[in-house]
Automatic annotation (TrEMBL):
This is HDOD domain-containing protein. Residues 209-399 form the HDOD domain. Gene3D superfamilies: Hypothetical protein af1432. Pfam families: HDOD. It comes from the Bacteria. It comes from uncultured Desulfobacterium sp.
Amino acid sequence: MADKNTSEKDQISVSLARQPVFDAKRRIWGYELFCVAAAGDISSGLPEESKVAVNLAESTYIGLQQILDRSRKIIVNFSEKGILDNLPYALPSALTVIKISRPLNAWHSALESLSMLKSDGYMIAVDWDSALPDNGSLLGLADIICVDAPSMNKEKLSVEAARAAKNNIMLLANQVEDAAAFDACMRLGFKLFRGHFFKTQEKISVKKMSTGEASRFQLFKTIEQEDPDFDKLAKIIQDDVSISFRLLSYLNSAAFGFPQKVRSIKQAISLLGWRKTKNWLRVAVLTGMACSKISDELIFLATQRGMFLETIGVEHDYWGFDPDTLHLLGMFSLLDVILGSSMDDIVQYLPLEEKLKAALRRDPNNEYYPLLRLAEYLEEAKWAEGESMMRQLNLDSRKVKEAFQKSVNWANELASTQASEIANKD
């Protein structure tokens, strides 16, 4: 009985985060899913992939439905044992990419299972190290080869691109750090891309802040007052038709189940509570201002990052950082990409102290900046770098992992709620 309880507890403790994969037009092609959990060594990466498959099959991954509804692919890592145990069959074949990250040992049996999975409609992705020429049979099954772009020079990347084209295989470039790296990989023939590049602003596209965007920041200033005037706040929200409609739709959704319809903004704030209202409004304002073609993904990431940094502040109060302020730092850290404006232009409108504005400008000497770097490492599954940053900041590793898991769950729940709002509107 104890083993059963432990197993159930472990199952509940695992959450699933996502990393977007883009096509050559910078559209989201799909997501690679990976586990996050408070237990274990964060630098070891994924818990056993059975938890990914089982959680997905049981629909415990909040946010999966939105991915599937949009016909986006999901990339899931499997070991040889997972392949032999037929775990991929827990996932929809038309949208699932089975990824092999480590060389398989029992070639005959595993390859036979992979071949059957491919014939049943699953795609196969293989890390480059697992698809070397002496493993030609595996290469023959691959639909996608994943290459860590920074680890190869241009000549070697060209060779891989030619080999992939010859075998009708797509190349996925990992760790694409900026727009220049994206363009270089695209010219070499890569079709799919994953990495930090989509979080960075392209200087060529930077525009000035519009009057409408500047006025939206006035709402931020009202929200962030220590003792807000709720009558004034309700009026500002009412004057913004889009936000007031979304707030009322949100509270009148089935998720809350209030016996009577919520009909006023003041009533909405009272029922939801100020803290929850404030967090919701932050996201709603960002969503209303977004102009990026991948704004949904960026806002998802910004909300996740905000909750992560807030929780870090709560759990490490000896730092003296205000958790609510850290939440804003995380949420605002992608504003330049979301709005297509320079961060220098944006920060003058933000209700933040100068130190936080410097962190948003990416000042490497700023005391808050390492926290943003830590968030980025974990978002990109750079476990070794994350572990190193935790030691540098003297953070409790378990508390950091709990904070990241909490932020993943919170962002997924919020995304799910937003999807419900859209469905109710339709």
